[in-house]
Amino acid sequence: MSLFEGLSYSSDKNVIVIDIGTAYTKCGLAGETGPRCIIPSEVKNAKSGKIVNLSDFEKKYELFENIKDFLFVLFFRHLLLSPKNKRVVICESLLCPDVFRETLGKVLFTHYEVATVMFASSHVMSLMTLGSTVGLVMDIGYTETLVVPVYEGIPVVKAIQCIPLAAKAIHEKIESLLLDSATVMTNTREECPLSSLPDCLNNQILEDIKVRCCFVTNLKRSKAIQEVVIHGADESLLPTPPPSVQYPLDGGKVLNITGKVREQSCEVLFEQDNEEQSVTTSILDAILKCPIDMRLELASNIVIIGGTSMLKGFHHRVGSELYDLLRKPKYKEQLSIQTFKFHKLPAKENYAAWLGGAMMGSLETLPSRSITRDSYQLSGKLSDWCTITEEVV
After folding, report:
1. Fewer beta carbons within 10 angstroms: which end of the chain, N or C?
2. Phi, psi of 118 (to 5 degrees)
3. Are 329 and 67 a contacting pair, CB within 8 Å?
4. Tell me: the pLDDT tens digits for 288-345?
């Protein structure tokens, strides 16, 4: 039976929906149109007092404490409710590490005593917002880009493509370009190279620069830039750069961000590596690894999620790159696709998976797809995402 067929809405309005990402976590209640909070996936280490990422740990008990403290902030400072005996939906990536998943379940069941937990694939949940069971979902997060074909609500595992190009790679590119050529106007009106003030940059500032100042250029300009930067062509062939902008820093300093930095930082996502892989080739490679009778339908149902995909010009560039790549022998000989079609999501790309989880959490079938506290206490194990639970609560 289809995932959505014959489902009706539940009257239970206290189902907690959490989507824990590498950089940001989305949290709210089922049935709502958006998360109540989107906060960094960070926690204050009890021993060192430093702010660390939720997944930064050396031993398993440290991860337990990190998750416990982080969920306390979510439940009691943002949602303002007790999780005891509540139902919880966790939106997770198919590549979520087992140690994180098991520890998260242990914290929820043993420490916060929730009634049930459902671990839902974020890629399948994003399709739920469209009322579809078929789609090629590309999730561009913080550390990696993951492309998952989904057919009749089931992820095609053998065709999954993962490439370590995402927001983190853009941040590193921005930092490299800025340290190479950017200048800073100090509060004494003196201009000095940014390389002499390296402490001015941190991850939060780099992300803010990416969001406010950078964009994804079009394919024509990109090819001209790559001819010069990668293949060493004459710099006179470079297109006229966009205007520079002034970015205020702490202490009255002003950072001058050139048009080169603004335009070229996001090119790291599309520059093919030695294996000729980029975020766009991963879409075509995923389609190629699917059965031939699925390919046209997947190409007509492409869904892009993840905060990085909200960059200006990103969707247009992906579409242009796909058609350009189809002319290459590698894909031209194996794919007979003429058109690609992209879905427009009913929510912002960064919380589309959460919205699907909120829809799933408001359905009457949620208990039959969840793990109960009693069954967890008996077995001490969590069923995998592909396991169908027959127990009805």
Report:
1. N
2. -115, 125
3. no
4. 999 999 999 999 999 999 999 999 999 999 999 999 999 988 898 888 888 999 999 9
Q: Is 109 helix (H, G, I), strand (E, B) or coil?
A: helix
CA dist 333 and 260 (Å) reads 37
Q: Which residue spans within the chain are E strands per DSSP? A: 16-20, 24-29, 37-40, 42-44, 51-53, 87-92, 116-121, 135-140, 145-151, 154-155, 161-163, 183-185, 191-193, 245-248, 254-257, 302-305, 371-372
- Which domains are assigned to the chain? 16-129+348-379 (3.30.420.40), 135-165+278-332 (3.30.420.40), 167-269 (3.90.640)
pLDDT digits (tens, 9 = 90+) for 243-271: 999 999 887 889 999 999 999 999 999 98
The answer, yes or no, to whether residue 220 has pLDDT greater than 70, is: yes
Q: What pLDDT is stored for residue 215 in this prediction?
A: 95
Bridge pairing between strands 254-257 and 183-185: antiparallel
SS3 297: helix
Three-class DSSP category at 388: coil
Do 353 and 126 meet the contact criterion of CB atoms below 8 Å apart? yes
Q: What is the pLDDT of residue 241?
A: 86
Strands 145-151 and 154-155: antiparallel
Higher pLDDT, 383 or 21: 21
Whether the Cβ atoms of residue 142 and residue 304 lie closer than 8 Å to each other: no
Report the alpha-carbon distance of residue 325 to residue 65 in Å, rounded: 47
